[in-house]
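Q: Here's a chain of 278 amino acids. Please give me its 3D structure as tokens.
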Amino acid sequence: MSDHFGSISIDSHASQKTGENSRTALPQRPRPPKKRAPQSKKPLFFALTLSLLIGGYFLAGMYLAPVLTQKYLTSSLKKIGFTLQVDTIQLNPFNYQLSLKNITIFLADDLESPPLLYADSIFVDLDLTSILRNGFVCDSLLVNGLLLDLIRKKDRTYNLPERFQLNKKEHPEKIIDFAKLPFLFSLNNINIKDSRILFKDLAAGKTHTVEQLNLAIPSFSNFSFQSNTYIKPHFSAIINGSPIQLSGEAVQIAENQGFQTSLSCTIQSLQLAPYFAY
């Protein structure tokens, strides 16, 4: 049978391929990007807060704590009649070690006279929280180059504030009642090295000197405090040209009832008669 519409070949496979090609030729729509979950800002906030706290602590220890310490020491000494002058105060905020250099103490009402006490340097292993409790506690105290200039006037009074003057009706041991001081303190493991005391007795017209003074005291306080370790007591000096040495050992009594100290003494060519008047 003749094909009135012409010769048209129909290939089913070819048409299928053409359909596939037409489908693949169509442009594909871009897929929308997946939305990422918002990142938490908590780690960044925590790191920033921690950095600010560490920086603030370091700055407070370096600058604020020395100012507060000097203010506390100045006000405490002023209450008992002394004026404090310090060239530099530094505090290590990591181990609470306090360093003071060129320390001078005058009588509060007599700044024109020579200073009563001077020290080249003082190093303190400080309990910083004790200052906040209106006290002063240290585990160790090192004093270098101390000079004490003590004067006994012709009226037999000393260049000390009135509260430290000895009343004629009182016994010598009552000249200072540390329990009545307007602040609490506990100084432990005290070391005084390369120091000197100059005692001018204007009433007797004599001058006494204590040179090459080295002193070690386990504890000195006006309230109960227990340190972890204590040094052995020691004293050595040259008093008016006579060498003197005291050494001992402090043993703690059971149930924290204090210490029992044994001393050994070495004295060479010391005349005791000139000291009986004191």
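Q: Can you summarize the key feature?
A: Helices lie at 12-25, 42-79, 128-132.
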